[in-house]
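tool=predict chain=A
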Amino acid sequence: MRFELYYWPGIQGRGEFIRLALEDAGADYVDVARGRGGVARLERLLEVPARPSFAPPFLRAGKRIIGQTANILLTLGPRIGLAPRSEEDRLWVHQLQLTIADWVQEVHDVHHPISASLYYEEQKTAARRAAADFRAERMPKFFGYFERVIARNAARSGWLAGRRASYADLSLFQMIEGHRYAFPRAMARLERRFPRVIALRDRVAARPRLAAYLASKRRIAFNLHGIFRHYPELDRTRG
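tool=predict ok
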């Protein structure tokens, strides 16, 4: 089956979590909006189906159009070998992905703490306060949670669930990469506290298909239009 991914071109955003899974699996897919006329196709599919998505990303798999990142990965994972076999374990991986979805929203709200409809420059004072709390409280809490999950995995595999990598592991990799871009100073201090998380990141980065993708032009660079944004003033302890 050839999959069609619909997400905005030019940013990694929430669509990148799906790209990582498709690339790691060597799946046959097209990133529709990055092709000619692709944005228009994306916008039409936001209106046409009987069950439209609220916003990208969404994925066409055969006759199905599936929206929401975690929902897409829940559906996609078993088809491309990135989800456990048992229903109980698949729901656990889905739960981890939903936790990552909460985390993603908190990252976004650091640079847009008042409103997503305002420019960052219109809310910089509030963003500095939000960033200070995020660096001090929320980053350690999320990284600490996933450190414990890896440690408590009964398989002792170094992955989040079971003996093999799942899409949640790839998503955790993306969170680490995003935080390294957005908060390099804070991450330099934090990473030594979470060795299992960083070891997982390194194992994901070394997976052959994913390593090839990360080194290719298909991997969109982090920038100031996505979820992870590097504003130096939001990565300072003071000032």
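The mean pLDDT is 96. The domain at 3-79 is CATH 3.40.30.10 (Glutaredoxin).
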